[in-house]
């Protein structure tokens, strides 16, 4: 059978997690927390499971949740959005990105992707009949805006950014957004997908969002994730915010892709979203980042700056000359810790001998992992 995605196989996340299970290794590879969710969410879920909320919600989302999201955006970003026309609740951020690309990209149109990039972007562009155009960031994960300006052209339909950035943990500066605004201004038909699923997991630096820029938000699809924000990754609930003229096209795909998202989860999140302060999330994860950094201080790894997300990148040049994929396989088998190689996030498999750890784990897990890593 001829495949539509000849370059796609088993994802590195699945591979490393399977290896971690096989070799009884500590899994710091896949990006999911291993600690309990907020007890209040558990209580609300139990309560709502007994209520009459088990049928389809409206396609775009439960009205109470849409209103809660609008209120959250107003509190955090001082932006007023219309709940009924500018928000779409999705079955996870990945489904939202897929629906957006399917709705907006026509055969032959280009989508600019900044590498290293989350692995769902490229296949979704291919399936839409578009052409992914990859631009590599510099080795320090900063963006070469001169190359972006030289690459974007009349065929470019969408530019995708990811801030805070997975896998690097890097955050865009205000100067980056000034450059982005210039690119958008030079290309009036260009649409931005701003993947901001880690928007509330930020540390010392301020998070600059497409919400804060009028030029951007009027031509942007902003991607958010309840799974990341409330460490509910298994619930697979995210949302898109975009102007009505863009979102109405995405809804056309969404309604035939999933139609609507889990009703009990939506009701529970609607009840919870107004009671919690998302601005404290950064402090929670910053403590974990600092704890892991402290535990790794005597290791031979070079820890790179982690400004947001719950990922810590590390160079191992002082340890081995193996490729990053080979090194991660060796670590699972011989050290008992699973990580993710960064080369898999590059279209051309660029290898800077850098790997990614997830520190969204209990202190016990981080201590045990660091003890093993420090023995290398």
Automatic annotation (TrEMBL):
The keyword Transferase applies. Its EC number is 2.6.1.-. The keyword Transferase applies. Its cofactor is pyridoxal 5'-phosphate. It comes from the Bacteria. Residues 25-373 form the Aminotransferase class I/classII large domain. Pfam families: Aminotran_1_2 (PF00155). One of its GO terms (cellular component) is cytoplasm. Keywords: Aminotransferase, Pyridoxal phosphate, Transferase. GO terms for molecular function: kynurenine-oxoglutarate transaminase activity; pyridoxal phosphate binding. Coiled coil: none annotated. This is 2-keto-4-methylthiobutyrate aminotransferase apoenzyme. It comes from Fluviicola taffensis (strain DSM 16823 / NCIMB 13979 / RW262).
């Amino acid at each position: 059978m001829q495949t539509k995605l000849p370059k796609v196989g088993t994802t590195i996340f699945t591979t490393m997690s399977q290896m971690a299970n096989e070799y009884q290794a500590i899994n710091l590879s896949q990006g999911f927390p291993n600690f309990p969710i907020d007890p209040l969410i558990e209580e609300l879920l139990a309560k709502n499971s007994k209520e009459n909320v088990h049928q389809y919600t409206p396609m775009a989302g439960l009205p109470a949740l849409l209103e809660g999201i609008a209120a959250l955006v107003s509190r955090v970003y001082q932006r007023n959005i219309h709940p009924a026309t500018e928000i779409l609740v999705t079955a996870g951020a990945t489904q939202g990105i897929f629906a957006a690309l399917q709705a907006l990209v026509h055969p032959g149109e280009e989508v600019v992707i900044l590498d290293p990039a989350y692995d769902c972007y490229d296949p979704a562009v291919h399936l839409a009949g578009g052409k992914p155009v990859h631009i590599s960031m510099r080795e320090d994960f900063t963006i070469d805006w001169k190359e972006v300006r030289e690459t974007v052209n009349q065929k470019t339909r969408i530019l995708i950014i990811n801030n805070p950035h997975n896998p690097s943990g890097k955050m865009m500066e205000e100067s980056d957004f000034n450059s982005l605004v210039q690119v958008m201004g030079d290309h009036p038909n260009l649409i931005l997908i701003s993947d901001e699923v880690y928007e509330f997991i930020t540390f010392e630096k301020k998070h600059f969002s497409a919400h804060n820029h009028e030029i951007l938000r009027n031509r942007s699809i902003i991607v958010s994730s309840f799974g990341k924000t409330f460490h509910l990754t298994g619930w697979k609930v995210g949302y898109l915010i975009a102007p009505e003229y863009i979102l109405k096209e995405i809804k056309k795909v969404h309604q035939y892709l999933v139609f609507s998202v889990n009703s009990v989860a939506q009701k529970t999140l609607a009840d919870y979203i107004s009671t919690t302060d998302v601005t404290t999330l950064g402090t929670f994860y910053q403590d974990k980042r600092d704890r892991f950094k402290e535990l790794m201080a005597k290791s031979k790894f070079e820890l790179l700056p982690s400004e947001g997300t719950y990922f810590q990148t590390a160079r191992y040049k002082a340890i081995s000359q193996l490729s990053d994929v080979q090194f991660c396989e060796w670590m699972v088998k011989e050290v008992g810790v699973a990580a993710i190689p960064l080369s898999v996030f590059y279209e051309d498999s660029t290898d800077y001998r850098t790997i990614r750890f997830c520190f969204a784990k209990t202190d016990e897990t981080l201590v045990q992992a660091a003890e093993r890593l420090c023995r290398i």
